[in-house]
Amino acid sequence: MPHPFRATDLPAWADPSVPASSLDPQGASRRTFLRLGMAGGLALATGAHAGTAAAAGGHGDPQLAWLVGDHHIHSRYSHDAKYDFDQLARRGAELGLDWMVFTEHSNFGHRDKGAAAEHEEIMAARARNPRQLIFQGLEWYIPAAEHGTVFTAPGRHEVELLREFERRWDGKLNGWTADLPENEQRAVDALRWLAAQKSSGSVDDVLVLANHPSRLGIDSPHEIRAWRDAASGICIGMEGAPGAQGDADPDWVAYRGSTRAQRGEYNNAPRPDSYPGYPAEAYRTFGGFDWMTATVGGLWDAMLAEGTLFSITSNSDNHRTIWDTWRDGDMPPGESFDSLGWKPSPVDTGTPQPGSDFWPGEFSRTHVGVTRHGYLDVMDGLRRGRVWVDHGHLVDGLDVRLVGARGRSSTLGGRLTVERGTAVELTVKVRSAHRPNPHGVLPRLAHLDVIRGAVTGPATDRDSWQAPDTRVVEQIDTSRRFGTYHLRIPLGRITQSCYIRLRGSDGNRHGAGYLGASIDPAGPVPHDDNNGDPWADTWLYTNPIHIDVR
């Protein structure tokens, strides 16, 4: 159906009418990276729908502009969060976000009143912040499982669809939280229902991502695979790293007197409805990343080894920012969250308040490759898997290509088809960090790890979580590299279908990976309780590129 919004204004760093002298160091660095990627051009076309690349690589592989975003943010329209939209949008813009998704918790008050009132505020926020793409979404209580992000493209029916989805399919509101086969089926049916709404034209697009999948151990491998397979292009991935990354910052722990604090609030143990096949380590983060993603040869790799894409993201899950001084607003007498559908605006106390999160864009970032600037273009980039994520603003820019015979290439999320025995090369362009991050530290990328896995086809055991043929095949020292630099990494002659992904680190904290040093000699590791300084242990991950051998 026709899109109801005009073409969105470009972010300032990509708008050639904005003088380079007026950009902050982060914007200037991003503009330089975009100019280099676009073969000397700067303009990033605007439009509501995905379009033709402004410039192309070999044989149609597009050159991309990378928009930075966060798909998991809560406002005072969630019962356990506190900020106004303008506070979040303003801080996100200051920290370099191009797009953001507000994902309020399902509640009766939100369903009945809050979602509609929130939509009016989102429409106003879009008008006040034309250079930002602001989505309305929902944090879904997945039946028999954890939470998930659900969000739609802006349009006439966006809030109606979210409210109806919440009413029909939310596990908490409908009493479907128990670990029962019928509830697992309801989650699959819910995803198929979303696909039907898109097919009917009720909304232009809708996406789902699984949130903090290892936190409680209740997202079993067969459930995650079932979500992926329920409806093509709807559930496209999961959080590779959860929010709440400030929970175990030692200074914050000392101030508030916490115990057993862990990055991501991953301080749990198995419970009766947890999947029994997960080890105890699965309930901790590794370098701030979820065990499913951080384990080379683990569940994420097991899904990629099936030959299909499943993306990862990173985000703030912002509810309450550490060291922030705002408290919840005062509820009117006789009212509650469910009676209003929201909470009053917060009040500044001047004293740090409880929290475990960072502002959107402050620490966790999801970079999405697009050829045009718009809501549907971000969603298209996410669906195509043109995604890499980083913590602590580890690098300013990254572009990854696999190059085969006659210059044919493919970028993140894509597929490169080659004849058996074809030599393939990985090319990586890196733009190092050019200014201190929000913590006041100039990040340095110490190394990039090349991870390779064999494609073995659909899993015969839907609860399997290991990919035994996946391992780190090369580590490239980047500690002395600065500015914009290029890496060329020969992968040899390809004789079997496989995939390639990258991981990078500041080099501060690592050890043998969970499945052993022969698979991952220098991977992320868990931290002790109360001693997880996120700024001193930062990583980046890319989505894979698959290689199909014929």
Indicate the structural class.
alpha+beta
Largest sheet: 15 strands, mixed
Q: N-to-C terminal Cα separation, in Å?
A: 39 Å
Overall shape:
globular
Radius of gyration: 22 Å
Strand content: 15-25%
- Quantity of strands, as a count: 21
Helical run tally: 11
Average pLDDT score: 93
Helix content: 10-25%
Indicate the low-confidence ranges by residue numbers: 1-7, 39-43, 47-59
InterPro entries: PHP_dom, Pol/His_phosphatase_N, Pol/histidinol_Pase-like, TAT_signal
Protein name: PHP domain-containing protein
Pfam families: PHP (PF02811)
Q: Care to describe what's here?
A:
InterPro entries: PHP_dom (IPR004013), Pol/His_phosphatase_N (IPR003141), Pol/histidinol_Pase-like (IPR016195), TAT_signal (IPR006311). It holds the Pfam family PHP. The chain is built from 11 helices and 21 strands. The chain is globular and about 70 Å long. Helix 3 packs antiparallel against helix 4 and helix 5 runs parallel beside helix 6. Strand 12 and strand 13 form a beta hairpin. The protein has 550 residues and is an alpha+beta fold. The N terminus is likely disordered. The longest helix has 21 residues.
Q: Which features does this protein show?
A:
550 residues, four-stranded antiparallel beta sheet, 21% helix, globular, disordered N terminus
